[in-house]
Design a protein that fits this description.
Length: 395
């Protein structure tokens, strides 16, 4: 593991509340190398946790908080661990069993509230004969008690969202009070707000109802089903491009949203992956719970996924048609014509179904078609296709 380039900040921990006070330092997030993006395992080991990580969250300084759902009968951490951004091998017990109402921890999710510089968590408690969960920014038992809370998330304004699993609701803490969002889901286990006032909801397969992802609009609380392709989506993360990344607990797959809004599998072979977290560089961490590890898919891997491939041409004396495979993750693809041996783009052409064309070329001359796909803000990925136009036809 590579050491971080910034200084570690102080951590404050009190027995009556859990609060991190942020000191102004530049964030250098955890990162790791990745396998070739064309394989089904484009992830690398970031951390071996010694337990079953359930969820993760980065604070504004780049420290990583990891929660565990080990329970009292499983080995490994039964708490929340903080990994310093200065060196990911340095860890601190952020919240121990002593602060939990029940021994064994079993925290199901965490989220960083930038508005209050504090950590949110869902923790099981027992009240009467029913099992309830608490989500708290100051004290885990004092902020709220919500039946069957499975996941907590928070937007940039500090509004808190709690998914209640089998209860089928998503509750929002807004302006000092809790309200239930209008849509009713069959088994919501994760939520994630975006920067546009929308809330993504992951529904795990339950009974006759399949799993999938829904989006709830900020205006009118209209729920739209984005996909039902997954069995039990458990973790949600947003790339810098705004596209969703989803972990499927049941199948061990990682899905990525395409430019058209559909979803495609980008990684397989994980063991009951749960929560996801995106760092400041666009790397996505995976709580690979069944493997007792945190894996990472790097920003570079996501950037490579937009690259066009398999270029061929059909050439005449004064025209060319270039064919290629367009990445479903690319938000835009363009073609540029360049004279071989130069860099200036002569003309651009629109892309239609994986092909573009140029006419009015000089005979018997070398050209290059440069196909560029982008997934802002990732670096554009280009495919260059060289060709030479045919000479004059002899009579």
């Amino acid at each position: 593991m590579n050491p971080r380039r910034t200084a570690h900040r102080a951590i404050r921990l009190a027995s009556t509340y859990l609060l991190v006070t942020t000191i102004g330092v530049s964030a250098v997030a955890l990162s790791g190398s990745s396998a070739d993006a064309t394989t089904t395992q484009p992830y690398a080991l970031l951390l071996s946790t010694g337990g079953n990580p359930s969820a993760m969250a980065y604070d504004t300084a780049g420290d990583l908080f990891v929660s565990f759902d080990n329970g009292p009968r499983l080995s490994g951490p039964h708490n929340i661990v903080e990994y310093a951004h200065t060196n990911e091998t340095t860890q601190t017990t952020y919240a121990s069993d002593a602060v939990y109402p029940n021994p064994g921890g079993m925290t199901t999710s965490v989220a960083w509230d930038a508005a209050t510089s504090s950590l949110l968590a869902t923790v099981p408690t027992s009240i009467g004969s029913s099992t309830v969960f608490s989500a708290g920014s100051q004290t885990f038992s004092g902020f709220a008690s919500i039946d069957n809370a499975q996941n907590v998330s928070v937007d940039s304004a500090g509004d808190v969202f709690v998914a209640t699993g089998s209860d089928g609701t998503v509750e929002e803490y807004l302006n000092g009070s809790w309200t239930v969002l209008t849509p009713t889901f069959f088994n919501p286990v994760a939520t994630l707000p975006d920067a546009h006032g929308n809330l993504f909801v992951a529904n795990c397969e339950a009974g006759s109802s399949g799993g999938g992802i829904s989006s709830v609009s900020g205006v009118g609380q209209v729920a739209t089903t984005l996909t039902t392709a997954m069995k039990c989506p458990d973790g949600l993360a947003l790339l810098p491009s705004g596209q969703l990344v989803v972990s499927d607990y049941s199948t061990g797959d990682i899905w990525r949203q395409t430019a058209s809004g559909s979803f495609a599998i980008i990684a397989t072979g994980l063991r009951t992956p749960e929560g996801l977290a995106t760092d400041s560089h666009g790397d996505v961490d995976i709580a690979n719970s069944g493997a007792g590890a945190i894996d990472v898919i790097s920003n570079a891997t996501f950037a490579n996924e937009v690259a066009p491939t398999k270029g061929t041409t059909v050439v005449t004396s004064n025209s060319v048609v270039a064919h290629f495979t367009v990445s479903p993750f690319a938000t835009a693809t363009t073609c540029g014509l360049v004279v071989k041996g130069t860099s200036a783009v002569l003309r651009t052409s629109a892309v239609h179904a994986g092909a573009c064309s140029f006419s009015g070329l000089s005979s018997n001359k070398g050209y290059v078609v440069k196909v560029t796909s982008t997934d802002a803000p990732f670096t554009p990925a280009a495919l260059t296709i060289s060709f030479t136009t045919k000479g004059p036809v002899k009579k």
